[in-house]
């Protein structure tokens, strides 16, 4: 997981563990800093007490070596480090801003360190100030105090801080190590605990994901997914979510059953009505045609009326056949499964379209080898015919319509492209819906009934294919993709 992502996009378990780790780290940091600071204060208080005692003992180790003419401050004196002084104690005598001597108490046989390089630092120590820490290079840090002597000299006494600092470093390292190990253990244990705690929520999410992948827009839907009883305990937050999801799925399932029942009734009504209308329509057309064939003279006006009756009956018959076909496809009636040569079918369909629309330009683009799919030849021919009829009906005379078919991997791709004015942008999302038209009129002059492209989509979907459209002024392309393998 990238840390550059916003925290709000992290998984819930990661955020919980991260929040716990942050709080624990803050708590450990406060405790650790407080512990080290308290220890430091205690250790410095102890060494300041030791330094005060050492400063009181320091004057008793002075021996004078001067003559009677020397001033008290200038009389040479050397320290003997009285009893009780600790190893490493620093003793410095300053007269009139000049260091007369500076020595460090060492173990017997150990060489005495050279203090001379640090005289400038030692001269900054002022009598009367509280114990202060001074860095003395290789000697390390010293805690030093200064006091006036009766002879006018200034005596500096210091104790090393190396042992104190080593103790502080050791304690700080131990505290830091314990903090890191504790945080690592908490991170591992917390991850396991949070993962187990959120496992019911993951099962609820998995159920919701399965439901979201179902097609609920049409057909009969078996909404069998439910959250398990173990994840619907109302005493827990996840249980309440799981129970609410189950109730919602029950309501959705009932609504889908009602919707499917309503669709089935409507589909059955359309199929029954279409089937029943075919007979009277055929009779109307027959009687109209018979009346025009009588030997008795028919007035011109009546003959025109009869032709119109026959024409409208024929148009209504086509509409009824389309509705009946859609109803059958919606009901899932199986189609024929035979090899179909799309190349030959496209040649025949374009030839028919050329006869029906001689003022359009018709072009063919065919591969060298035939493109064969498995399906219903009659229905696939209707798909091609409807696409060509759509291009002929909705484009002006002189439009060039190009039909092509190709084999791409395991699917056949059939396209019908025209250079007409294009489909209005507002109509594109509904172009494959039933009774979708470019205008609101229903006259013959305006075009077809609006079922042609709906039949195309239904037939292609029944063949496990897909149809799409891409349109702009000067180019409209319908693309049909059909699998070459049998269902």
Helix content: 40-55%
Mean pLDDT: 81
Using the alpha-carbon principal axes, give the shape. rod-shaped
Distance between the termini: 42 Å
Number of domains: 3
Sheet with the most strands, sense and barrel status:
5 strands, antiparallel
What's the alpha carbon Rg, rounded to whole Å?
51 Å
Number of helices: 8
As a percent range, the share of strand residues is: 15-25%
Main sheet strand line-up: 4-3-7-6-5
Q: Total strand count, please?
A: 14
Derived structural class: alpha+beta
Secondary-structure element pattern, one letter each? HEEEEHEEEHHHEHEEHEEHEE
**Unreliable residue stretches:** 65-70, 439-447
Question: What's the arrangement of secondary structure elements?
Answer:
Elements: H1 12-57, E1 62-64, E2 77-79, E3 90-95, E4 98-104, H2 119-122, E5 132-135, E6 141-148, E7 154-160, H3 162-212, H4 237-292, H5 300-330, E8 338-341, H6 342-356, E9 361-365, E10 372-375, H7 377-393, E11 400-408, E12 411-418, H8 452-462, E13 466-472, E14 475-483
Parallel strand pairs: 9-11
Antiparallel strand pairs: 1-2, 3-4, 3-7, 5-6, 6-7, 8-10, 11-12, 12-14, 13-14
What would you say this structure looks like, in words?
This protein has helices at residues 12-57, 119-122, 162-212, 237-292, 300-330, 342-356, 377-393, 452-462; strands at residues 62-64, 77-79, 90-95, 98-104, 132-135, 141-148, 154-160, 338-341, 361-365, 372-375, 400-408, 411-418, 466-472, 475-483. The chain has three domains: 13-167; 239-329, Helix Hairpins; 335-483, Heat Shock Protein 90 (2-Layer Sandwich). The two termini are 42 Å apart. 47% of the residues lie in helices and 17% in strands. The longest helix is centred in the middle third of the chain and has 56 residues, at 237-292. Mean pLDDT is 81; it is low at 65-70 and 439-447. The strands form four sheets. The chain has a five-stranded antiparallel β-sheet with strand order 4-3-7-6-5. The protein is of the alpha+beta class and 487 residues long.
């Amino acid at each position: 997981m990238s840390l550059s992502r916003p925290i709000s996009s992290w998984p819930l378990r990661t955020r919980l563990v991260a929040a716990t780790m942050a709080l624990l780290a803050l708590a450990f940091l406060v405790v650790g800093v407080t512990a080290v600071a308290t220890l430091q204060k205690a250790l410095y208080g102890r060494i300041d007490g030791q330094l005060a005692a050492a400063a009181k003992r320091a004057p008793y180790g002075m021996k004078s070596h001067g003559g009677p003419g020397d001033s008290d401050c200038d009389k040479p004196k050397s320290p003997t480090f009285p009893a009780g002084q600790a190893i490493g104690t620093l003793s410095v005598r300053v007269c009139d801003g000049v260091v007369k001597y500076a020595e460090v108490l060492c173990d017997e046989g150990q060489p005495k360190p050279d203090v001379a390089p640090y005289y400038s630092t030692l001269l900054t120590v002022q009598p009367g100030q509280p114990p202060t820490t001074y860095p003395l290079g290789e000697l390390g840090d010293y805690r030093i105090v200064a006091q006036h002597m009766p002879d006018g000299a200034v005596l500096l006494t210091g104790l090393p801080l190396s042992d104190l600092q080593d103790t502080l470093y050791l304690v700080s390292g131990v505290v830091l190590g314990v903090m890191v190990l504790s945080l690592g253990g908490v991170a591992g244990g917390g991850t396991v605990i949070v993962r187990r705690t959120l496992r019911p929520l993951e099962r609820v999410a998995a159920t919701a994901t399965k439901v979201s992948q179902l097609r609920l827009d049409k057909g009969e839907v078996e909404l069998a997914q439910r959250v398990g009883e173990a994840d619907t305990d109302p005493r827990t937050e996840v249980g309440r979510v799981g129970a609410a999801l189950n109730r919602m799925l029950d309501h959705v399932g009932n609504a889908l059953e009602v919707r499917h029942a309503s669709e089935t009734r409507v589909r059955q009504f359309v199929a029954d009505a279409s089937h029943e209308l075919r007979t009277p329509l055929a009779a109307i057309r027959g009687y109209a045609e018979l009346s025009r064939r009588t030997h008795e003279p028919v007035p011109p006006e009546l003959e025109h009326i009869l032709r119109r009756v026959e024409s409208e009956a024929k148009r209504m018959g086509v509409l009824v056949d389309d509705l009946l076909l859609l109803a059958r496809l919606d009901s899932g009636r199986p189609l024929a499964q035979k090899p179909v040569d799309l190349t030959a079918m496209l040649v025949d369909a374009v030839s028919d379209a050329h006869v029906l629309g001689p003022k359009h330009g018709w072009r063919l683009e065919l591969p060298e080898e035939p493109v064969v799919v498995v399906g219903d030849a009659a229905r696939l021919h209707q798909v091609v015919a409807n696409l060509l009829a759509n291009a002929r009906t909705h484009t002006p005379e002189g439009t060039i319509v190009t039909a092509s078919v190709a084999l791409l991997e395991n699917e056949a791709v059939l396209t019908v492209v025209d250079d007409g004015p294009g489909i209005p942008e507002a109509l594109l999302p509904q172009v494959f819906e039933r009774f979708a038209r470019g205008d609101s009129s229903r006259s013959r002059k305006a075009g077809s009934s609006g079922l042609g492209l709906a039949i195309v989509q239904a037939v292609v979907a029944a063949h496990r294919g897909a149809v799409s459209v891409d349109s702009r002024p000067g180019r409209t392309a319908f693309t049909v993709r059909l699998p070459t393998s049998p269902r």
